[in-house]
Amino acid sequence: MKRFLGIDVGSVSTDIAVIDESGNLIVGLYLRTAGDPIKAVRDGLFKIKSQFGSDLKIDGVGVTGSARFLIGAVVGADVIKNEITAHAVAGLHYNPKVQTIIEIGGQDSKIIIIRDGIVVDFAMNSVCAAGTGSFLDHQAQRLGIPIEEFGDVALRSHKPVRIAGRCTVFAESDMIHKQQLGHKREDILFGLCEALVRNYLSNVGRGKEILPPILFQGGVAANKGIKVAFERALGTEIIVPPYFSLMGAIGAGLLAQEANIKESKFKGFDITEQDITTKGFECRGCSNLCEITNVFIEGKLVARLGGRCGKWEDLDYTSSL
Amino acid sequence: MKITYPPFGDARIAIESFLRDFGHEVIPPPPSTNRTLSIGVKYAPEFACLPLKITLGNYIESIEKGADTILMLGGIGPCRFGYYAEVQRRILKDLGYDMDWIVLDLSNGWMNLFRSIKKIVNGNSVIKVIKALRLAWEKVLALDKIEKISRKARPFERYKGEVDNIVRETHKKLDQAGSISQVRQVLSEYRETMDSIIDEDSLEELVKIGIVGEFYVVLDHFTNFEIARRLGELGVWAENAFYIEDIVRIYLPLFRNKDIEERTRVALPYIKRSVGGEGQRTVAHTIEFAERGFDGVIHLSPFTCMPEIVAEGILERVSKDYDIPVLTLSIDEQTGLAGITTRIEAFIDMLKTKKRRRMAG
User: Fold this and answer.
1) DSSP state for residue B276 in the 8-state scheme
2) A47 in helix, strand or coil?
3) Phi then psi dihedrals of residue B132, to 5 deg
């Protein structure tokens, strides 16, 4: 059996999946990035290593998410792909008939439109993070509700209040206002869910033809309140795949599997015990002044990122350092 | 007189050699960097469009190098661009830089324009003026050809940065070229080098993207995050809807020709009149690319640019009617590179999959 490792390093969470060659999940991890993507990935790989032993053979590695280039260099990725493609691939694997994917993560929200099994259109939130996971986290915290219970509490609502959801700051002031008026917590929470869905559909989903089957992926899909609010707004069923929060990582793994890799560049699970450091400098070779990041494992330079020309890719190159 | 000018893209090379020919001491603006942008953003009004901010930064960096005169276009229209010179003049004045401005104002009467031109001409004879103009024009045409060919070659480059290196060397030679025949010589050497890189037989298999939008953002490599290079490295052949020549023809009446209006006509079913800037042309160019069988269009717009916002709304319909995917990227100082990279990569993945499926039958 062949095994593929998929890693999705996002702003809020780092997800790791090991899948077999048919795309079945062998192990999946959901960790907090907490501002240190390298540490999050090492922690994750360490857990996998402790569970399966360090001789677990990996036949290909795919990395996605906003830290994909850095992590790709650290772990030795065979495929480095953007989140949209990764989510689309995972969604299509789960349900080949899918026509719409709604993905809401920590700081991004996306819509992917699929017809006949290929992506035909997509959009991402552009100017504002209203309605993404970070905001929900923050509001749950403020109302003293663990984020895990957010959805259940919201679903107890019978008379949701209308919350202004265009902007997170205004949504928050509006929620406080509604609290001061004596509205129930669950009504405010479900009102917030509806506001976020409204905001998503009129910004990210603007002008898109949202047809079923619709998959709801990303960390926010855990929130049942948002799922129900989407179902009410669209008048159709929303499917939340069992591994909704790991779809990016699974997609990255599937991309590695599709790439037909002969020999993986994976550096192995040993990197969990090695010293990994980065150091940046500004290249003054031309007016571009690229910010170059050197990645070191055990003090040895393994990769350089950030150059627009090719000269720093040659690791022996040191002239104008 | 130490003269400087607002650079956009590679046009700087033609502008600089033109001014030099008239015996001016030219202070070329240092290449735009994040510092340029930071300076511009600091002193420009928040809601001004990005080109105003960047060029303001360019001026200040040139002033630091000793410039005391600024050459700029101005007047009514085509959009807020018409006010740039006056707004920038006042901002610089408030900052204590009392610059001498030569504004080619095409709407303020011939006398005004004549006075500005006289300053540029610098007492040179008519023959010399014509000669300098012809040489500068030849350089503009060469710059456009260099750019166009580089777009074709980048998907085939043998190592990262190969094409950029050749282009940079060619630009240096072009800057030094003192006659039309020298310009042509530089260009033909360049062509030969590029021909050895381009694999003509595989050209048809490349994903082809058209780039449309506001002219400064489309032509200035720093401003558009070097989109042409990024696309080339992803194996995409990206063509612009226009190059420097077209912009000169559009904005300088002396060079105007009928083709410009003729090309805009295809947009008429969607947008009957100009909405300022490149708005109407953006719609026309998108249709043009669709009809030429391109795989997709990337629409570049400076954040808060009204004409491009109007165009963006219309492009949704054009995209459906002509079945051509359009990706709009709105660019300003707040735009994160990560967001742009992700969108471009995903867009290309989408077009590649579509193309593969179409070619498979």
Assistant:
1) S
2) helix
3) -65, -40
| Mean pLDDT, residues B77-96 taken together | 90
Asked whether residue A321 is assigned to any structural domain, the reply reads no
pLDDT of B52 strictly over 80:
yes
CB contact under 8 A, B161 and A310: yes
What is the DSSP annotation of A179-246? HHTT--HHHHHHHHHHHHHHHHHHTTTTT----SSEEEESGGGG-HHHHHHHHHHHTS-EE--TTGGG
* pLDDT tens track for A239-271: 999 999 999 999 999 999 999 888 999 998 888
Respond yes or no on whether the N-terminal peptide bond of residue B302 is cis (omega within 30° of 0): no
The 10s digit of each residue's pLDDT in B231-283 is 999 999 999 999 999 998 888 777 777 888 889 999 999 999 889 889 999 99
Q: Are residues A127 and A236 in the same domain?
A: yes
Q: Is the pLDDT of residue B131 over 60?
A: yes
Contact list, B229 vs chain A (CB under 8 Å): 308
3-state secondary structure of A124: strand
Identify the bridge partners of residue A112 per DSSP, sorted by sequence position.
Answer: A101, A122
Q: Which two tokens stand for residue B225?
A: 């995050």
Residues in B closer than 8 angstroms to A120, CB to CB, are: 325, 350, 354
- Cα distance between residue B186 and residue B182, in whole Å: 6
Question: Mean pLDDT of all residues in chain B?
Answer: 91
Interchain CB contact of B317 with A (< 8 Å): no
Domain membership of residue A301 as a residue range:
276-313
A:218-237 residues touching chain B, CB 8 A cutoff: none
Q: Are B76 and B107 in contact (CB under 8 A)?
A: yes
> A220 with A130, same domain?
yes
Task: Match 């026509």 to its residue by tokens.
Answer: A99
Q: How confident is the model at residue B212 (pLDDT cuts 50, 70, 90)?
A: very high
Residue A269 burial class via C-beta count within 10 angstroms: exposed 0-12, middle 13-18, buried 19 and up: buried
Specify the pLDDT at position A124.
87
Q: How many domains does chain A have?
A: 3
Asked if the bond preceding A213 is cis, omega within 30° of 0, the reply is: yes
